[in-house]
Structure formats: structure tokens, C-alpha cells
Amino acid sequence: MALGIQEFIKELIEQDRSFSVQSLEKRRTNFEFCVEYNALRILLIINYCGTNKKIDSKLKFAFFDFLLRYPICLKYLLGKYDGVTEEFSDAELGSIDKKMVKHISSAWDPDYYNYIGFLDARGLIAVDLNNRFELQITTAGELTLEKFDSPEVKKIIRRCKLLKKLYSAETDNEISKIIKKYFSFAVL
Description:
- The protein is 55% helix and 5% strand.
- The chain is mainly alpha-helical.
- It has a 3-stranded antiparallel β-sheet.
- It is globular.
- The protein starts with a helix and ends in a 6-residue tail after the last helix.
């Protein structure tokens, strides 16, 4: 059975009884504070933006997430490439998924490690933060993603694939230059 974002959230909450029924209603109406929704986007980034379904750069990870959360910035950046197109609704261009904060090299979400822990605890990703930032999707994570067929998830997947095509071969230094050139407002 294909799941949309709402169904995914409900399924995760039903599996994890530590969530309250009251928080379910709040989560359904306010994605900004929804761990499950943000964790899903991260899972999609790892699977579709990563090399061999792995992200091993904190900077690339935050860069990809920034562009997915801020569609107006993604549209602006895509406009720099000939022949690269993506459709954006007026509503999404005027909104963001969840605010990020300025950080040394890229916009950053202080809750990243909560989302990563959420995915790791459920066996959906493998995490190595010892020597390097490395997130790898697991078989369970891949099986979970196979359940998704909603238009909103397909849109994120399409954009992840586009980001991978354009930026996966870039080094951290090259990504940093792109951020500083086009999105200097996102860094300290």
C-alpha cells in the first residue's frame, strides 16, 4: 500500500506508543514541529541525493536540505542552469518547510541530530559520526521508502534526484563557494 506523508506519520506514531494522541493532531496540522516529516525528508535526501545511498558530507547534507526546505532558493539556483527546469507552485515559493539557522558554512537545523536519532533508532539509517559525518540508508529504510507514492513525496524525490545530478560530484569546497556566492545570508 502506498503511503502519503500523513499516513507515514500516523503509522510511525501508532508503532511508537510514546507519542500521545493529542500530539498526533498537533503534528498533522503543524509540520514545522513534526519530527516524522523532517525525518522523512532526511531519509529521502540520503537515499536519492547520496552516492550509493549514503551522505558523507555534513555540508552537502545541509545544502541539499536547505534547497528542499526553501523552494524559492532552489528555483533561483536552478535558474543558473540552461535546460534545467522544475515546477514550483506560488504557494510553495512563498513558504518554507521549517526554518533553519545561520551556521558557519551553511544553513543548519539545530534539530538535525534529533531527526537522525529518530531514523537510527528505528533502524532506517546507519550513522557514523565518529570520524566523519556519514549517514547510510539501511534495507529497512529502503523498504520504508517503497511504501511512498503520494504526489508530495514524488515531488521531493524528483528534486532530490535533480540535486544529485547537479551537485553530487561537487567537493565541499565547491559547495561552500556556491553557498557563499548565492546564499550568503544563510552563513555566519
